[in-house]
Amino acid sequence: MTKPVDSPVQAEPAAPEAVQVSAPQRPRSVKRTVLNYVALTKPRIIELLLITTVPTMFLAAGGFPPFLLILNTIIGGYLAAGGANVLNMFFDRDIDAKMKRTKNRPLVTGEISPRAAVIFGLVLSALSTVYLWVLVNAVSAMLALGAIVLYVVFYTLILKRRTSQNIVWGGVAGCMPVLIGWSSVTGTVSWTAFLLFLVIFFWTPPHYWPLAEKFTRDYERAGVPMLPVVSSRRNVAVQMIAHTVAMVACSLAIIPLAPTGPVYAVAAIAVGAWFLALIIRYAVRVFQGRTGRDLHPMGVFHASITYLTLLFVALALDPFLRF
Predict the structure, then answer these.
(1) Which residues span the domain enclosing 284?
(2) Do 223 and 142 lie in a common domain?
(3) How confident is the model over 64-75, as pLDDT tens digits?
(4) Which UniProt keywords apply (predicted)?
(5) What is the pLDDT, as a whole number, of residue 27?
């Protein structure tokens, strides 16, 4: 756009380039529009949620559940998580605009309008509930609806901007897929499913806080009180160790309760020991006063994803590899 006219000198005809910029933009391609709507659902996060859902179904079934049940649970879970993520992006668009990591999201760039995003999020949320109710069962549908409310209202609107423990309690929504997966097979929620819920609950802080450490300035600029922003690195490291110990303990408690076989037992012990050692090493670096690349928080972030993936892959394989 051209600058406002302040004097007769500036009142000259606009340059051809300026006229070209102010001309109407071409309509966006269908492909680009679809990709922007898909981006609103945060597909990379949903992939992680599905990694925990399907293995839980295998454990609940003691083998391979009906294929259509798996497919319908995945579709319904994707719709629910996608709807929640879209609404989260709508309410957080002011924060996203201030952060380098999120400034290119469709609602910030204007690729998708706020009104369109709200409609899209609400439609996905309603569709997920109906889909799961009709094609899976009522328990799974209600759990999915509860996860949406927890993420959008409890985490996004209430906790995120008010407390440094936002990701701890707000992470409850991210634990719901294991309950949905279990209930899709059994129609109920058992103590085994609750322990899997706790594994993800305690996993979330040591998974997310390193990311918040990496982007501390972003969160400061946006006014989001993530724990690494408002507390000392030492306190964060101590809390990460505590959460990891609780996470590993819950993963091991599943062994006699499920009951599981040797595949899951060995994997839970091995990957639990590996990840705990990694967190302790991270804490040692913190206490040594290391920062930035020497601290390497993103290494912990990516390792946490590897831990959860390996644990749940072992959970999925366990029913088929009993010796």
Answers:
(1) 190-323
(2) no
(3) 999 999 999 999
(4) Cell membrane, Heme biosynthesis, Membrane, Transferase, Transmembrane, Transmembrane helix
(5) 58
Burial of 110 (0-12, 13-18, 19+ CB in 10 A): exposed
Determine contact, residues 60/186, Cβ cutoff 8 Å: yes
CATH at 116: 1.10.357.140
**Where residue 28 falls among pLDDT bands split at 50, 70, 90?**
low
Burial, 86: exposed, middle or buried (Cβ in 10 Å; 0-12, 13-18, 19+)?
A: buried
Return d(Cα 84, Cα 90) in angstroms, integer: 10
Please report whether residue 294 resides in a domain.
yes
- Asked if residue 57 lies in contact with residue 184, where contact means CB atoms within 8 angstroms, the answer is yes
Per-residue exposure over 247-273, b if at least 16 CB sit within 10 Å of its own CB, e if not:
bbebbebbbeebebbebbbebbeebbe
Q: How far is the C-alpha of 56 from the C-alpha of 177, rounded, in Å?
A: 9
| pLDDT tens by residue, 249-273 | 999 999 998 878 899 999 999 999 9
Distance between CA 164 and CA 226 in Å, rounded? Answer: 5
Q: Are residues 127 and 205 in the same domain?
A: no
Global pTM reads 0.86
Q: What's the CATH number where 214 sits?
A: 1.20.120
| Two tokens, residue 297 | 């928080």
Q: Is 110 left (phi over 0), alpha (psi -120 to 50) or beta?
A: left
Question: Are 210 and 177 contained in the same domain?
Answer: no
